[in-house]
Structure prediction request, 123 residues.
Amino acid sequence: MGERMQIGEVAERTGLSLRTIRYYEEVGLVVPSDRSPGGFRLYTDPDVDRLRLIMRMKPLGFQLDEMRELLAILDPKDGDPEIADPDARLAEFTAGAEQACEKLRAKLRIAEEFAEVLRAHRA
Prediction:
């Protein structure tokens, strides 16, 4: 199974709070690979990778159900038989992610312009 780590180490590796990691478990996005004899959650590197993938989806505006569906498409072992055309859905998700990235770039351009205005006033 590889290295197993407790939730605190996972939080440290990902920058997520313990509460957020537990929430993602509660909603079924990331389930610990194992539990210790004492009942502690134990995660593996693939679990951490999955959390990092979720972290990438969040700023793009993906909703929980979309994250769940996309994770099922991207990880064949989680494949959801209810997804009629995974390739078409992946194309839709890709287009949505690209649109969200462009919106974020536009916001960043505006923020950079504003920062430049502020810097100019300091000079």
Notes: Strands lie at 5-6, 34-35, 41-43. Helices lie at 7-14, 18-26, 45-57, 64-74, 86-122.
